[in-house]
Amino acid sequence: SQAPLLYSVEDGVACITLNRPESLNSFNTEMHAEMRKVLEAVRQDSSVRALLLTGNGRGFCAGQDLSDRSVAPGEQAPDLGESLEKRYNPMLRAFKDMPFPTICAVNGVAAGAGANIALACDIVLAARSASFIQAFCKIGLIPDSGGTWTLPNLVGMARAKGLAMLGDKLPAETAEQWGMIWRCVDDEALQEEAMSMARHLATQPTRGLALIKRALHASSDNSFNEQLDLERDLQRLAGRSEDTAKASALSWKNAVPPSRES
Ligand code: T3D
């Protein structure tokens, strides 16, 4: 049977491709297990300085495989809290905490958990024909995979509520206009643009990029004053890093050789 994920590492870029195109790359148990292994491999591989996530076929990811969720009359419904605790939440934490940039190339529809996995990446590029759907409300669920945190942070509460409660399909171009994603690009240019961005980021000072992520992620929990303190602490680390020392010794305009925290 086909591998539910494809995984490769080249030029410092780890590339993960969701590979169940016949069900729009929805997550079943095997795909979750593979993802867990691959994310661990990515973390352990010190040659990796950027991660690119994309999907195979016409969809990016339709979230949970709902054929695993049918309940026969008289049977008890599965514990979805346990599913989040054991599968989705560790995956989302792993993406969020990667000590280097994560890029998502949304090649087609991203629905349910699929939308929120994409939006948890640092930089989201989407094909012009792609779309985002918070499909949860249609089946009586709440946005998960970090959606209730990510959406208001990205687009504000009014739009987050509209998306989460109406479950409408949001075209990639609107997502770009709303600031929900970095950019949408022509379909045929998506993979090349995403890969070239990932390759570029992999040549940059990775430690500094990881500290930028940390500061920005903390911002929604912190007051302005707390954030100033955090900037002080992280800038202290950044300023004493090898990358910054080399950049100062040379010239700000010179390329900086990157270093990575393990
Ligand atoms: O359960 C837990 O563990 C808790 C976690 C929950 C996280 C979640 O993600 S809940 C939300 C789950 N996802 C959805 O509700 C989305 C369901 N899919 C759709 O609404 C539509 O498929 C799309 C809007 C995404 C795309 O529509 P369209 O018309 O482009 O394609 P389609 O014809 O609906 O789908 C194509 C095929 O993919 C089709 O199979 P077939 O008929 O060709 O054999 C369809 O059944 C299959 N497919 C699509 N989504 C899923 C799926 N199969 C299983 N699970 C899916 N989620």
Automatic annotation (TrEMBL):
The keyword Zinc does not apply. One of its GO terms (molecular function) is isomerase activity. InterPro entries: ClpP/crotonase-like_dom_sf (IPR029045), Enoyl-CoA_hydra/iso (IPR001753), Enoyl-CoA_hydra_C (IPR014748), PaaB1 (IPR011968). CDD domains: crotonase-like. The keyword Isomerase applies. Keywords: Isomerase. PANTHER family: EG:BACN32G11.4 PROTEIN, ENOYL-COA HYDRATASE. Belongs to the enoyl-CoA hydratase/isomerase family. This is 2-(1,2-epoxy-1,2-dihydrophenyl)acetyl-CoA isomerase. It comes from Vreelandella olivaria.
